[in-house]
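Tokens in:
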């Protein structure tokens, strides 16, 4: 399996954090077209832009550009699964105790139905 690239990590973080491309470009101070070069052509931004991107995403520039966390290569994570789990976590954290009980009842029934198949 190929190592994730800058654009892969950028797309993963945008999905994971639920930030639209338009919003991200505005927050970083670049045009949507410039962001498109990084997302679709695989271009690497200048250091100052990469740093703004990393700060906007609250990750290190080293991680975003090189895929390195704490001096080591970041482990490959299935990005779709990563942001889906984060989304479920966000939903669960926003529920009241009563809503959480209902959520778990539904989740348990879903799990039982899926494992029967």
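Residues out:
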């Amino acid at each position: 399996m190929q190592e994730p690239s800058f654009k892969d990590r950028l797309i993963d973080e945008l999905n994971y954090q639920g930030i639209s491309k338009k919003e991200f470009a505005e927050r970083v101070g670049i045009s949507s077209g410039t962001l498109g070069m990084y997302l679709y052509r695989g271009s690497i931004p200048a250091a100052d832009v990469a740093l703004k991107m990393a700060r906007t995403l609250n990750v290190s520039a080293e991680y975003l550009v090189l895929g390195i966390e704490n001096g080591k290569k970041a482990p490959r994570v299935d990005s779709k699964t990563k942001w889906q789990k984060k989304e479920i976590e966000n939903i669960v954290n926003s529920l009241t105790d009563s809503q959480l009980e209902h959520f778990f009842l539904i989740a348990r029934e879903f799990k039982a139905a899926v494992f029967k198949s």
